[in-house]
Amino acid sequence: MRYEKVNLYAHFSVERPEGALGELTCWYTETSPKVSVSRRRPAVLILPGGAYTWTSPREAEPVALRFAARGWAAFALDYSCAPLSFPVSLREAALAMRYIRENAQAMEIDPHMVAAMGFSAGGHLCGTLGTMWDAPEVADLAPAGMVRPDALGLCYPVAVSWGRTHEKSFENITAGDKGLWERLSLDALVRPDMPPVFLWHTRNDGAVPCRNSLELACAMEKAGVDFAMHVYRSGCHGLSTADEMVYPVGGVPETSWDVSGWLDAMLRFFRDCGLVIRDGGES
After folding, report:
1. What is the C-alpha to C-alpha distance for residues 139 and 64, in angstroms, rounded to an integer?
2. Contacts of 124 (CB under 8 A, 6+ apart)
3. Are 94 and 142 in contact (CB under 8 A)?
4. Segments of the chain assigned E as strands
5. φ and ψ at 96, to 5 degrees?
6. What distance lies between CA 244 and its chain's CA centroid?
7. Max CA-CA distance within the chain?
8. Which of 126, 135, 154, 247 fits a 20 to 30 Å CA distance from 48?
9. Neighbours of 151 (CB within 10 A)
10. Torsion angle (degrees, nearest 10) of CA 26, 45, 51, 180
11. Cβ(8)–Cβ(24) below 8 Å
């Protein structure tokens, strides 16, 4: 397996805001010629959570390695957080999508099978990427078709800016601009041509209320978006893979029995959307 780190600002010669991060970590496999000389794999861009205050490592490498074990190429973005605000992190996510697709052939990736997924505040960023790929804020970075993910995975996302939500995330991403609070509520950004969405939450999430996902699902249903939603009965916020890869031995939080199956369910959803390993030439 190949492992690389890429500073997206330096790679693309894009002006870097003071204090910005924009570092992409890459995991991808080179297929043996004895297996296939024409293999193309799906890829996933992972956007960790952290309330737009930091990016949680528990929701980056452990998730990437799970995807890599199933034959996917995986990429985790260490994006910029407060005091930097919108649209810095969205621009970095757009550059990450451009990097993956521009280097798809060298990394044996099908550029038409690139999903994005995010956790908590990273779920919000993923949602903006999946609805604002053609927004003016990213139009100078890449063609819209290069930015738009082919599928989305939203894990206990900070989704709505009104009512019971995670106010700290919206304070950070908007720098307190109340106009942006309204604009960046994902339910208001939903559009019929957004990618298909896999969405999951736990009913008793104490940090980001489950209503975030419920309201987003209602908006997607109204718009006719293809989506699947799983609300698990019990589990705390920030579960990530919900196992000892991300918690101390013996210290995994108690959850309902089915929570740990979220990643396999997401992979099945992505597969049903056409994101599968293929042999037989370029797409």
Report:
1. 28
2. 52, 118, 157, 158, 159, 169, 173, 184, 186
3. yes
4. 2-7, 23-28, 41-47, 73-78, 109-119, 151-155, 197-202, 227-232
5. -65, -45
6. 22
7. 57
8. 135
9. 25
10. 130
11. yes
Token reading at 139: 């139009």
- CA gap 66, 225 in Å, rounded: 27
Residues 53 and 81: their CA atoms lie apart, in Å, by 5
Q: How far is CA 22 from CA 77, 91, 109, 241, 252, in A?
A: 7, 9, 22, 24, 31
Q: Which residue's structure tokens are 């916020």?
A: 237
Q: What is the DSSP letter of 260?
A: G
The structure tokens 């330096």 sit at: 10
177 burial (CB, 10 Å; 0-12 / 13-18 / 19+) is middle
Contact (CB, 8 A) for 116 and 79: no
Any idea which residue has 């009512």 for tokens? Answer: 163
Q: Pick from 146, 135, 118, 85: which is nearest to 216 by CA?
A: 118
Tell the residue number behind the tokens 């060298």, with chain if given.
106
Structure token digits, residue 4: 């690389």
